[in-house]
Amino acid sequence: MPNLFCRPLAAIVLVASAIAPAQAATAPQTFLEQGLQEIIKIAESNRGATPVQLARKTRPALERLFNFESLTKRAIGGGWRDLNPAQQKQAISLFSEMLIRSYAARFDWDAKLEMQLSPPVDVGSGRIEIPAQTRYAGSKANVLYRLENTAGRWSVYDVVIEGVSMTANYRAQFDSIRQRSGGEGLLKLMKDTLDKGS
Q: How many domains does the chain have?
């Protein structure tokens, strides 16, 4: 699957090892900071783990931070409605595992990373955006975390890196696959991709 991991979760999470809030943190900002730091702490305590092992260790924390159901719906886009409930459940499981393994495969225990969070911006309908500036291995990047409040709980539903939405990036790839092979073909390709990395 070409370019499937070109916007890895690693780029989203790894930059959180040194977080500096721009001002007094709000509730969602605190949630984001603590969630990112928890993932980094788990990863650092499992130094030397294989990507599959690290994915297994970090999954619970990532599931608390990210809304993988919402991420999957947005990544599949209009094709989500073509999947039956069982296929939708499978898609969430496969896509979340792909993202988590992508992060785990690119984790660098010795990398020096910094992050500066800006105040959140309310975009309405229970959603906010938290801009961040990151520095990793001498390179700077602008990251935008998109969070939603569902039933009183915040979660990340998309991340934009240098203007490129993670979910939109996957959707562009998934659309072409789905048009050629249908929803079942997309699920099979996800599974095959994971099987190759096992």
A: 1
